[in-house]
Structure formats: C-alpha cells, structure tokens
Design brief:
The protein is of the alpha+beta class and about 300 residues long. It has one domain. Helix content is about 20%, strand content about 35%. Strands 1-2-3-4-5-6-7-8-9-10-11-12-13-14 form a 14-stranded antiparallel sheet. The protein starts with a helix and ends with a strand.
Length: about 300
C-alpha cells in the first residue's frame, strides 16, 4: 500500500483550494446575503455527508507531524508506541487519509457549511439559491449554492466567481450532487481546473473526487472515490462505515490492487490490516488499546 498516493491524487484539487482564499474569508465579517427567504426551500444535507469523523477510534493520542506526513509511526512516535503499536499505527493511517484527502476538500466543504448564514431565494426555474459574498479590498468572492427540488430528491450545485486578477472565475462549478428527500442517501461530485496553468481562467473543470453517502438503519456510510479520468489514482477509494457497535475504514489502491482495513469496536478494541504493516497480517488491540492476539 502506497500511503503517499492520496496526497498525490489530491494535489490538483488542493492547489485550487489553496489559491482560492475562501477559507480565510469564512472567518471574516461582512458576509452579505438575501434579506428575504422562502420556507419551501429544500433542506441542506448535513456536512457529515462530505467528511467522516474520527470519533470511532476513541480518544486520540498526540501524533507528531512526521508520522502524519508519512502515514506511518516514525521517529519518537515509533519508539514510544510500544505495546500499543497496533492501535497507534491504525490511528496514524486514518489521520493521514483524512488530512491528505478530505482536507483537500476543506474549502468547498466549508463554503457549503456556511450556506446556513444566507437565506434561500426562489428562482424562476424552480430552484432555490443561497448567495454569499466575501470582500477583501477591491476583490470579491461570490458563492452560489443552487438546490433544485425534484420528485424524490434534490439536485445541488455550488458555483464560485471572483474578480481576483490572479484567479478570474465566472461561476466555476466547485461541486454538484443529489440528496434523496428521505435523507437516506446521496452523492457529491467535486471538480478542479483542468491543469494548474489554466487555474486563473477556470470556468469549467474536470471531475476529481466523488463522495457517495448513505444512512441505512443503524449504519452511516461514506465512500470517497478518485474518479479523475485517466488520473494516476483513478479508482482509488476510501470507504467509511459506522454503527453503534463499530466503525471501519477500507482504503483500496487500484494501481496495486491492494486493500487496507482499520476497524474499531465500541468497547475500544480493534484491528489494522495493511500490506506494509505486520507483514500484511491482521494486527489487533484490546479494550485498553494494548496489542492483543487476533481471535
């Protein structure tokens, strides 16, 4: 399992997110939006449909930067892991996946979360529009979130515009997707500029990451897949599942044809099975997170 793969495959999208300063603007005052609303507007899905949580692993240890960057216990962390090395390695690898992939989506996910600060307006085509504008001097960044009700679902689309001379955007589609009216399932498709050289003129992008989410009975699931056509990591995916009894993450590397799994039970015990740890064999920990035999 190449634990550097997620960082590589997210690079193009991350460049766009880092250049666009929306994340900084979200913390500033001066947000403007419509003054009137419509109670018939569709309900926004939860932000949790875009990013899995770490709570299933219990109280997390303090992890050093070097270990997070490599996805493996290294340096002092490796030396102090000791009798909890299995759990420590599981935690580090989950942190690595979250930070290298999901944090590449931080800006659009943050913008979506901020939609609650504006009031939706009915549009002539039957959709509803949430609009919010961020100003920095003479530059403005405008975010447009459209929700279009259909028979059994809602279609979503977020666009961004900017007069920043280094990044002129004209309703660039950051992501789109759908959510079922019963809130049981949906998906998000994220886009990035075709290449770094054209980012300043981007209006139409390429698909890079798709998230499918579901709430089925006692189980919540979220699957993030790299679907950039022809990309080196096309077909790689992370699948997160959580119930009241356990949480688990599967990471599939399509180029290597290898699967990694990290599972934690509600009682604190769990296991890690990855190709480059413990010779690829399942390694377990007990309810106190100490190394244990796998039964």
């Amino acid at each position: 399992m190449n634990w550097n793969t997620p960082k590589t495959l997210a690079k193009g999208f991350l460049v766009f997110s880092m250049i666009f300063v929306l994340g900084g603007c979200l913390k500033q005052d001066g947000v403007t939006g419509p003054e009137t609303g419509n109670s018939d507007a569709p309900t926004l899905p939860e932000v949790s449909t875009m990013k899995f949580q770490m709570g299933f692993l219990g109280e997390l240890p303090e992890v050093d930067e070097a270990s997070i960057l490599t996805g493996k216990a290294s340096g002092e962390m490796a030396m102090t892991a000791g009798e909890r090395s299995n759990w420590i390695n599981g935690v580090i690898r989950v942190l690595f996946l979250q930070l290298s992939l999901f944090d590449a989506l931080e800006e659009p996910v943050g913008a979506f979360a901020y939609a609650i600060h504006s009031i939706p307006q009915a549009q002539e085509d039957g959709s509803y529009l949430w609009t919010y504008i961020f100003a920095e001097g003479q530059m403005e960044y405008s975010v447009f979130l459209f929700g279009t009700p259909m028979a059994d679902r809602v279609a979503w689309r977020m666009e961004v515009s900017s007069n920043d001379p280094e990044m002129i955007l004209d309703h660039f589609v950051w992501f789109d997707g759908e959510s079922m009216n019963d809130d049981r399932s949906g998906y998000w498709q994220f886009y990035a500029p075709v290449d770094e050289a054209t980012v300043a003129k981007a209006t139409v992008g390429k698909q890079v990451i798709r998230i499918n989410w579901a709430h089925e009975g006692n189980e919540d699931s979220l699957r993030l897949e790299i679907n950039e056509l022809g990309g080196e990591a096309e077909g790689d995916y992370i699948e997160f599942r959580e119930t009241s009894e356990q949480g688990s993450i599967d990471y599939f590397d399509s180029s290597e044809g290898q699967m990694a799994n990290i599972t934690a039970l509600a009682d604190g015990s769990g296991s890690i099975t990855v190709p480059d740890y413990n010779d690829g064999l399942k390694a377990c920990w007990d309810t106190e997170q100490f190394n244990a035999d796998c039964n």
